[in-house]
């Protein structure tokens, strides 16, 4: 467990306020809770503040405490407990590399090395162009597509060192790489397409009238023609076959 402290005074802004739009968003969150329970909106308020500023400052914590009627220390506790809150200025893109066991076994070290090479040698430090920072995180729940990383709300999966370097450089050029698997497979299907649950008739219950008219066979035939992934492969393969 790492120690999480606020950023040094020299980088702390003297003031924070929500933009008019975000002020309305915070008010909507407060309104979700019964009177006197507005403190329940603390995570939402900090998250909206982080979306606005890119990180959570001391001034933001104090402002959120004031509008929610909470002691400063309570909001500080929340901000320092959850690692999703950045306590120091971060890059425009925060690259969160999963280094938990499945991703580590599948090569997350290469992803970390790519971040060190193209962003900064140290985690949480902002790149020279101000665009990126990176950090290691625990399992992001996409282990079946390991190794992976998260940028903003997007997952980039099935990565390796060169693919990670290409991803960072594409973002640096202002491009928007497509999230998801980066090795060509569809979601978490095997490379080349699905190998199981290909018999539509066996998994979808059809009305008896349709069954009698042979619609089940039609549906199954369509499925075989298109491939369950939409990428054209549908012939059953033995488990473990990748192409
Ligand atoms: S271990 Fe990396 S997503 Fe689960």
In short:
It is built from ten helices and five strands; from the N terminus they run H-H-H-H-E-H-H-E-E-E-H-E-H-H-H. Strands 2-1-3-4-5 form a five-stranded mixed β-sheet, covered by helices on one side. The protein is globular, with a radius of gyration of 24 Å.
What does this structure look like?
By secondary structure, this protein is of the alpha/beta class. It has 3 domains: 9-81, NADH-quinone oxidoreductase subunit E (Arc Repressor Mutant, subunit A), CATH 1.10.10; 93-181, Glutaredoxin; 190-243, no CATH class. Helices cover 39% and strands 9% of the residues. The protein has a 5-stranded mixed β-sheet with strand order 2-1-3-4-5, covered by helices on one side. The longest helix has 12 residues, at 20-31. The protein starts with 19 loop residues before the first helix and ends in a 17-residue tail after the last helix. It binds FE2/S2 (inorganic) cluster. Residues 98, 100, 102-103, 139-143, 146, 148 line the site of FE2/S2 (inorganic) cluster.
Q: Report on the biggest sheet.
A: 5 strands, mixed
User: In terms of structural class, how would the helical and strand content be classed?
Assistant: alpha/beta
CATH superfamily caption of the largest domain: Glutaredoxin
| Ligands bound, unique | FE2/S2 (inorganic) cluster
Mean pLDDT: 87
Labels describing this entry:
243 residues; 3 domains; 10 helices; Arc Repressor Mutant, subunit A; Glutaredoxin; five-stranded mixed sheet; single chain; alpha/beta; binds FE2/S2 (inorganic) cluster; disordered C terminus
List the helices and strands and how they pair.
Layout: H1 20-31, H2 42-53, H3 58-68, H4 72-81, E1 93-98, H5 101-105, H6 108-118, E2 132-137, E3 149-151, E4 154-157, H7 161-172, E5 180-181, H8 200-203, H9 208-212, H10 215-226
Parallel strand pairs: 1-2, 4-5
Antiparallel strand pairs: 1-3, 3-4
Helix pairs in contact: 1-2, 2-3, 3-4, 6-7
The structure holds FE2/S2 (inorganic) cluster.
């Amino acid at each position: 467990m790492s120690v999480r402290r606020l950023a040094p005074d020299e980088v702390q802004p003297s003031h924070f306020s929500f933009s008019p739009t975000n002020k309305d968003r915070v008010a909507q969150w407060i309104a979700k809770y019964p009177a006197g329970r507005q403190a329940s909106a603390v995570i939402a308020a900090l998250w909206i503040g982080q979306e606005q500023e890119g990180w959570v400052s001391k001034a933001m914590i104090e402002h959120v405490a004031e509008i929610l009627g909470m002691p400063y220390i309570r909001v500080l506790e929340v901000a320092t407990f959850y690692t999703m809150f950045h306590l120091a200025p971060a890059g425009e893109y925060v690259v969160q590399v999963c280094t938990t066991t499945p991703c580590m076994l599948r090569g997350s070290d290469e992803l970390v090395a790519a971040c060190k090479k193209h962003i900064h040698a140290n985690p949480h430090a902002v790149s020279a162009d101000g665009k990126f920072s990176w950090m290691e995180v625990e399992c992001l729940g996409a282990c079946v597509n390991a190794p992976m990383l998260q940028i903003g709300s997007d997952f980039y999966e099935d990565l390796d060192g060169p693919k990670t370097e290409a991803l960072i450089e594409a973002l640096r050029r202002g491009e928007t790489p497509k999230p998801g698997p980066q090795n060509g497979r569809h979601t978490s299907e095997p490379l080349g397409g699905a190998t199981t649950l290909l018999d539509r008739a066996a998994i979808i219950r059809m009305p008896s009238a349709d069954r009698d008219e042979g619609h089940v066979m039609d549906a199954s035939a369509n499925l075989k023609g298109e491939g369950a992934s939409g990428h054209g492969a549908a012939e059953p393969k033995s488990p473990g076959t990748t192409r």
